[in-house]
Model the fold of this input.
Amino acid sequence: MIELKNIYKAYKKVPVLKGVSLKMEKGGVYAVLGPNGSGKTTLMKCILGMVLPDRGEVFVGGESVIKKHSYRENIGYLPQIARFPDNLKVEELFKMISDLRGQKGNSEDLIQRFGLEKYLSYKLSSLSGGTRQKVNLVICFMFDAQYILLDEPTSGLDPVAMIALRKLIEEKKQEGKIIILTTHIMDVVEKMADEIIFLMEGKIYFQGDQEKLDELTGSEGVEASIAQLLLKEEKGKNDSSQKNGFRFKLNKVAL
Ligand code: ADP
Done:
């Protein structure tokens, strides 16, 4: 399980996460949504231990992220921007990652799934954005991690790779892994997510499955429902009594 307990984080005194509490269970796909700057990447980095919260605590598999670091071996992370040396060939990169880890990993199967065989001898600098994303996905999944964190995983992917990724995520879910992803593509959420976590201004505005979201907003589909949430929030800003009422309803449904 992954648990965040009342997390606060500010950068240069500007608050980004303002009291986020969450539980994520095995065998679940969690989609973290929210406008740009709402704190999605920061939340992921808190789970990774790359960002330490100012207050609150994060537990991964029962271990506190602040106190122990052994859980990190069990995390596969796809960052939005992966910084690997551009002059490396794809096959050299996979070898380097395996050597650093001291474990071969299962890159062959993933190379095949994402159709990367013909790119193995290419330098990273010569790859398209989508192909680079496939390389990063191989690295994220190659050590069969228990916890998989994907920041915008579909970015640049063609439809064939999207299907390969969806199948992979489905398999990991069946194996009882925890998968957390951020995305702006609502189709991805509808097809993959068991639970939606909607962040707004550093707080959890909604948490629940798609049915609950539709029920709350009176809309159908994630895109329409999220649009409704944003509209009501905007309207609520100009009308504090409605805002309180709507927030009350949201909290009731989310808990
Ligand atoms: P999201 O992933 O939802 O777009 P982020 O977590 O990346 O949001 O960022 C939330 C806010 O924190 C943004 O305003 C961003 O500019 C700011 N921020 C993120 N990382 C840093 C940092 N290292 N230093 C200062 N500000 C940061």
